[in-house]
Design a protein that fits this description.
The protein is α+β, with helices and mostly antiparallel strands. The protein is 29% helix and 23% strand. Strand 4 and strand 5 form a beta hairpin.
């Protein structure tokens, strides 16, 4: 049995739905996800990871964070590089995570 509660739609939807509507819990979760997706830049950091292959066959992998570029070391695993890029991106913002754990490359 799903619970229902009274829900007032956000201002954009309020133009179409003038009154309050009853929503199931599942529909309420979906609506919350859609509202969160409507503001995509509110809690995100832009990291662009590029793999550049030259004509000679040399390969450069770099992460672009705003105007800062982080290059991948030759002996660095891809997962470690992505985590290091995320850590540098977070360090350049005003938001501070409580903890960042970077694990060394694990051999399997």
């Amino acid at each position: 049995m799903t619970s229902t509660k009274r829900y007032r739609p956000p201002c954009l939807a309020r133009d179409f739905l003038r009154d309050e509507v009853e929503m199931s819990t599942a529909l309420e979760r979906r609506t919350a996800k859609l509202e969160q997706a409507a503001h995509p830049g509110a809690n995100q950091i832009d990291i662009i990871i590029r793999r550049v292959i030259g004509t000679v066959g040399d390969e450069i992998v770099r992460a672009v964070i705003g105007d800062h570029v982080v290059d991948r070391h030759a002996d660095e695993a891809e997962d470690v590089f992505v985590e290091r890029s995320k850590a540098e991106a977070l360090a350049r913002t005003d938001r501070r995570p409580c903890r960042i754990i970077l694990h060394p490359n694990r051999l399997t």
